[in-house]
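Hi,

Apologies if this is the wrong queue. I'm a grad student, and the batch job for Transporter from Methylorubrum rhodinum produced an output file that my downstream script rejects. I'm not sure whether the problem is my script or the file. Here is the sequence I used:
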Amino acid sequence: MVLALLPVVLLIALGMGLRRGGFLDAAFWAGAERLAYFVLLPSLFFHGLATAQLDALPVADLALTLIVATSAVAGLVLALRPLLRIDGPAFTSVFQGAIRFNNYVGVTLAAGLFGGKGIALSAICNAAIVPTVNILCVMVFARHGSARPTGLGIARQIVTNPLVVSSLAGIGFRLLGLHLPPGLEPALRTLGAASLPLGLLCIGAALEFGAVRAWIRPIAAASAVKFLAMPLATVLIALALGLSGPALTVALLFQVLPTASSSYIMARQLGGDAPLMAGIVAAQTLLALAAIPLVLSVIALAVPL
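Support response: The file is valid. Your script probably expects a header line. Output copied below for reference.
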């Protein structure tokens, strides 16, 4: 696990160095993030699922484990809202920090651990968690944020999410028994492979550590839920459903990932506390370096992964 994390850490650090050093124009990073999110990562998920042997993967059990665990932890965070003693916009950032995850890091680690099977499992995880998390977060923004999206706006965010669309399209493509044309298959594979390093570089470029010191308590609360409650709920539900092996490992991996840098963009657009969100993203990215291998190692002692 440490060896699988090392290239992730190095690429994030390189992205941070390139941004701080001014080697690339500031406008490059916004375009690169958009390219990775709307083109490269969807290509990776579609190709991984369209070419995967889904009949050998526990698709339903994996998806149900992640949806139930994420929803249960979201309910816990809502129940703890009075104890946090923060305003509504700040609570939306804590909520995002507790349940949102970084796709790029998850796919990179899963691919490093299990190769093509890890990519297919990652795509299933995204197909299950991305719509679940988006629905929950947008609903919390509607209740606690300073901007109030409409029901139509919530639905549009979900059905147009490129990660959801590409994952469901890949599953449908495979279930229909279709095959990618010889010229298209390597093109999609190459585009997908490019998403991993570029996405990690963008994460490093987006990190801002200045807000961490000013928000110790809410950052600690979001991180405690993310790195303790979320994996615990996931493993309990997975065991109840009989999930095991690489599928359980990847499920746990995705549930202990740091919050995505896109959370900051959502906080700005929907009336959250953007500075606090930036601090949570930065702090969790650092904490994840120790939390991911530690959580998986501890759980592996009690549960065969």
